[in-house]
Amino acid sequence: MTTATAGLTRLTASELAAALAAGEVSAAEATTAHLDRIATIDDRVGAFLHVDADGALAGARDVDDRRARGEALGPLAGVPLACKDVLTQRGVPTTAGSKILEGWRPPYDATVVARLRAGGVVILGKTNMDEFAMGSSTENSAYHPTHNPWDLDRVPGGSSGGSAAAVAAFEAPLAVGTDTGGSIRQPAALCGLVGVKPTYGGVSRYGLIAFSSSLDQAGPFARTVEDAALLHAVIAGHDPLDSTSIDAPVPPVVAAARRHDVAGMRVGVVRELAGEGYQSGVEQRFREAVDLLGRLGATVVEVSCPHFGYALPAYYLIAPSECSSNLARFDAMRYGLRVGDDGVAGVEEVMSATRAAGFGAEVKRRIILGTYALSSGYYDAYYGQAQKVRTLISRDFAAAYEQVDVLVSPTTPTTAFRLGERVDDPLAMYLADLATIPANLDGGAAMSLPCGVSPADGLPVGLQIMAPALADDRLYRVGGALEAAYVEQWGGPLATKGPPL
Amino acid sequence: MTFADAMARYAPVLGLETHVELGTASKMFCGCSTKFGAPPNTHVCPTCLGLPGSLPVTNETAIRFTVMIGLALQCEIAPWCRFARKNYFYPDMPKDFQISQYDEPLCTDGHLDVVVAGEAFRVEIERVHLEEDTGKTLHVGGATGRIHGATHSLVDYNRAGIPLVEIVTKPVAGTGAAAPEVARAYVTELRELLRTLGVSDVRMEQGSLRCDVNTSLMPVGATAYGTRTETKNVNSLRSVERAVRSEIERQAGLLDAGRRIVQETRHWHEDSGTTSAGRSKEQAEDYRYFPEPDLVPLAPTREWVEQLRAGLPELPAARRRRLADELGASAAELAAMGNAGVLGLVADTAAAGAPAAEARNFWLGYLLQKANEAGLDDPAELAITPAQVARVIVLVAAGILTATLARQVIDGVLAGEGDPDDVVATRGLQAVSDTDELGAAVDAAIDGQPAVAAKVRAGKVAAAGALVGAVMKATNGQANAAVVRQLILERLDGGG
Ligand SMILES: [Zn+2]
Q: I want to staple A228 with a disulfide (CB 3.0 to 4.6 A). Which of A194, A361, B321, B413 is the partner?
């Protein structure tokens, strides 16, 4: 690796796109630089499940050719990206982190993937994740754990831990993740990145291997707010292939990210998501961020969302219920793993044996939970009640947004925890998503923004910003303004301040 | 036990669940073709194969067709309703759940009136809902395609995702011994209605209309329904009637012997005319229904529903009333045409220029016989159009065809030999009207039956019929009977 190309991996997506547009660097060079970086460090980070070097280089050369012909190209054309292995990519192995899909090559592109391709974004490969996006540490991957680039003994968060680690380790300037209960924001917080869960319905779910259909949403990871906005703009927008996709213009996220001004905005601190249960370092950086917002001209008030306390139990009924149905199709009949087909066993035996062998413990736990919650005689008490809680939480949000433009809280109760620390304690693991789950239940937009490192352990802390549905641009406006102030303090984005690998 | 014995002691209660494949060009939740008969697994895509990541998108035409069916059945149309997932594992269900409707059907509380032997019965409709069809499993290596003894199974997903409407009746009681006929009349009337709406090709033999019949018995005079069985695989109108009759006889026999009816699925066997036990339904399967999160709720607006109502075609019952007036048919004639399923055909034939009475005679006579011979449930499936039948009738009236020749022309049309005029030309079926040519045969007939001839001479003109018949026989039916009659009367006139 030459020093010149090594430097390419340190650029933001925005900087790299400018260099590509100016002809200072080719997409093939940028892609090669990132593939080299992956080859050098990914055996220690474990961000990727599959690196598609040939496909990435072919895509990069295609962008270079089109640019040479003078074609109009998208703002991220030629910029490399890492994609969570939960989105289908035609001909490229897609596993959702599960053994049950090992070796499956989808015959079609997810809409997000199709839009990335159409925008000339170069997909380097598929990133590691908790199996079927169920987890908060990426330790539930059926393949291998992913390590937090800030401290390789710690988790990157999850379930999109591979995507977060890839960006934090400069293996890619951008990544796509998915967020069902915090699976973008929580790893973004733990890895010192910007991560956004767009408004539900803002980004198409077509080709997103479903965990919980009414909660899943794909979104961007980046090292800066502007980069996240650029990626957001590429992947968002109405898709007729997804009935829950919103037929409305994409909010002006890029312009909002570049505005760097929050004067006059009203910011609400959620009482129920502050105070007890947070590490002191997290609490401290959060309070400082709130103070900073005030100094930047925002009006900060405290608001109450009394039903947020029920969000976690409601989530752990709704998401498993939907997953128990969504994951039924992995039955060994049409694709993926098949176990026990000895020519004698009946179809139900083969289905059972395959599912027993192919799913991990956490996936089975949630399928069983959801199957129970939907059962006749229990439906009203569990799934039905959880839906009522969901309505109440949405009302809390609606009432809060009558007073303020955005809500803020810490993204996670703690900084990155050690690998193995919580694997035997599912409840402790579930608590990692305490603050992020309400936005999924509501369907609004939410971002995690780096707000410094905890004085206690030197690990990143995330600030969660939440906005009403279709007001994603407010996240970027607040995030962009705060980031500008932080960059002045720190001399660069937090993601550039991690220890070298 | 005989049916009559059963009916002396028990009152049957029916319930009918009819599945109708809608005739949309594309499937319920994807763009794949619904065309029947394509090579296996060629009309498939990520969505109807249930591939990971795929999503459903509702077919608007299927919604429109379902609302039309609901309106034609006088149902309430839900202003807001959702699809639900019905969860169960089966290889021909790609997602291992079926997108269906559960407690929020699109249409509820309608009715359909049928007439059996002059008596009207109202069949109440519980619900009409929309769902997706499953694939088809083929068991290979065993006997008669059944799973028992098969070495392996093949699944064809072409049918998976075809829009399927389920029409469920409320319990139909009070029919007494007419129960089998009421069941048949209901399915017949429903099929006619669906065909009139143009929402399905309603071909029972291809499975685009499938019927499950629930049957139970209670002692005559009782009000509490007995345990019911659900007979599946009833794939013709005739089978609907036979299956109900068979199941009533079976259940009555069991009840008389002091045994209980097991709540179960029963399979209908066309060849033996009996049912056999299938899956027990005493322990209801838990389908874990919940609202389909991948789809947004359906919310048909009042205006749209009223627009559809206003645009409905003339429905079969109204059409029958109108045609009865137009055809000048008696109630008995009307019932005969209705039961035979030829009313529309008669009307169309009359409209094409044939006298109504002649049209009725042809359809209820020779054409119905041909349909039965061909094993067709519906005479409309005969390869002859009402216009062609009308032309045959016109040719008869003009003396160009005799009744015998008319049948041969119809045979020719059915055999694909072209229009009636083509068949007349190619088969040389013109009636003989040439008086010179017929003279010898007339003379022979008179000579052969002198007693009859004497009667005619004495003024008993009606007796001439026997002589006409003899001439027709002698000419193999090719003679123009009117001409023959005239020749006979001329020869025997005035004591000559
Ligand atoms: Zn399809």
A: A194
Residue A497 annotated in active site: no
Q: Which of residues 285-314 of B touch A (CB under 8 A)?
A: 286, 288-290, 293-296
**What residues of B are in contact with residue A333 (Cβ under 8 Å)?**
91, 155
Instruction: Give contacts of B286 with chain A, Cβ < 8 Å.
Output: 375-376
What's the CA-to-centroid distance between A37 and ligand 1, angstroms? 41
B404 touches chain A (CB under 8 A): no
| B121 sits in which H/E element | strand B119-132
In chain B, the residue whose alpha carbon lies closest to the alpha carbon of A107 is B46
Whichever domain contains B452, its CATH number is: 1.10.10
Query: How many domains is chain A built from?
Result: 1
Question: Residues A239, A474, A479, CA angle at the centre, nearest 5°?
Answer: 110
Q: Are residues B76 and B117 in the same domain?
A: yes
Question: Across chain A, what does the average pLDDT equal?
Answer: 96
pLDDT band, residue B168 (cuts 50/70/90): very high
Q: Which residues on A lie below 8 Å from B137 (Cβ)? A: none
Contacts by residues B393-396 (CB-CB < 8 Å, ≥ 24 positions apart): B393/B349, B393/B354, B393/B355, B393/B358, B393/B359, B393/B362, B394/B353, B394/B354, B395/B420, B395/B421, B395/B424, B396/B358
- Distance (Å, whole) CA B230 – CA B19: 14
> Cis omega (within 30 of 0) on the bond before A159?
yes
CATH code of the domain containing A255: 3.90.1300.10
Model pLDDT for residues B412-463, shown as the tens digit of each residue: 999 999 999 999 888 888 888 777 888 888 888 899 888 888 888 888 888 8
Residues B94 and B312: beta-carbon distance below 8 Å: no
Report the alpha-carbon distance of residue B107 to residue B491 in Å, rounded.
73
Long-range contacts of B246-250 (CB under 8 A, 24+ apart): B246/B273, B246/B274, B246/B275, B247/B213, B247/B215, B247/B275, B248/B3, B248/B6, B248/B7, B248/B10, B248/B12, B248/B179, B248/B180, B248/B215, B248/B217, B249/B1, B249/B2, B249/B3, B249/B6, B250/B274, B250/B275
| Longest CA pairwise span in chain A (Å) | 73
Is the pTM of the predicted complex or chain greater than 0.95? no
Give the active site residue among A159, A163, A204, A245.
A159
Same-domain pairing of B470 and B381: no
Domain count, chain B: 3
Return the bridge partners of B163, or none: B132
Instruction: Tell me which residue range forms the domain holding A56.
Output: 3-306+398-496
Ligand 1 centroid, distance to A206 Cα (angstroms):
14
Is A376 an annotated catalytic residue? no
Q: Please judge whether A205 and B55 are an interchain contact, meaning their C-beta atoms are less than 8 angstroms apart.
A: yes
Using DSSP, state whether A359 is helix, strand or coil: coil
Digit-coded pLDDT (tens) for A89-128: 999 999 999 999 999 999 999 999 999 999 999 999 999 9
Q: Cα–Cα distance between A220 and A211 in angstroms, integer?
A: 18
CB contact under 8 A, A324 and B288: yes
- Give the pLDDT band of residue B93 (cuts 50, 70, 90): very high
CA–centroid distance, B46 to ligand 1, in Å, is 6
- For the question of residue A183 being annotated catalytic, the response is yes
Chain B residues within 8 A of A351 when measuring between CB atoms = 89
Residues B374 and B475 in one domain: no
The answer to whether the CB of B268 falls within 8 A of the CB of B239 is yes
Residue A355 lies in a domain: no
- The answer as to whether A285 is a domain residue is yes
ipTM of the complex: 0.96
DSSP A423-446: TT-HHHHHGGGTTTHHHHHHT-EE
Match 């995702």 to its residue by tokens: B161
CA of B206 to the centre of ligand 1 (A): 20
User: Sorting pLDDT into bands at 50, 70 and 90, what band is A495?
Assistant: very high
Range(s) of the domain holding residue B480: 435-492
